[in-house]
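Project standup — Tuesday

K.O.: blocked on the structure for the chain from last sprint. Re-posting the sequence here as requested.
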Amino acid sequence: MKTTKEAFKALRRAYPTFNASHAIAQAREALSDAFSDKRPVHRVARYGYTAEGAPFGGRAFTVGAYSLVWVERPEYHGMRDCGDAHKLTRLGHTGWYIDSEGRETATPCVYRWGRFYIPAIRDPHNTGPVMLAWEDRVLCRDASDEQDSDNTTLRDCARAADGAAEAYGENCREYSDAWEAGSQYAREGEEMQTLRKEARELIADMRKAQDFKDATPTICRTLRSAVSGLLAQIQECREKRAKLAAGEHVADYLPGFYTGDARLQAALNDGAGCNVFTIKGA
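H.V.: unblocked you, prediction finished:
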């Protein structure tokens, strides 16, 4: 459990201008009632609960039923890493994919701060930062230890972290799928431009051939067939773009997405580099 001495040192590092008496008072307050039903009188910024209700100076964001707070350096705030969730309780997996191709994983874990266990998710893009499921923190049992086999509180917290990671992974996969659809939408548009250019060049060649008396019907048929093939490919690109914009399944790596979500509409636009959708509320 976090001691007053450790909290005191952390606050002195965060606030070099604090004198000793002020820092020790703030440390005791942070550990004793910063998370009780009473709101703390003083803000303990960069360490714990703040007057705005955002812990550790972070900004909360919602993922499914969870409210997550991104923290860059949890150890700086006196938090202790209790380990990955699958090592604390039986889950059958180590994390949740954040993209449909399974390239990156969101790993659930548990952190301890003072008297509390906090479900968390390791940042899949960086080593060190975590996302805390702050509102799902639980009070540690007295005299409990992370190594105790009967530490049901820790195991419950690990399962809560797994639930948060599952929601976060699904959220990321949806966004990734919409962005990939937008990116493919842009590539199909580039392909259409290339095909149109080729078609225009063939049509110009066909007109030139018709001006010569020695142009054979075979040459003209070949050129017409080539132009027809290019026009058919352009139509295929146009139809594929319509499916992508409608959020339909196009390929294994493009499973589709819900077009009624403004967040996913924005992801599609971002991937496409243009306004495929007019964002709701914009």
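K.O.: great, moving the ticket to review. Confidence is low (pLDDT under 50) at residues 33-53. The first strand starts at residue 60 and ends at 63.
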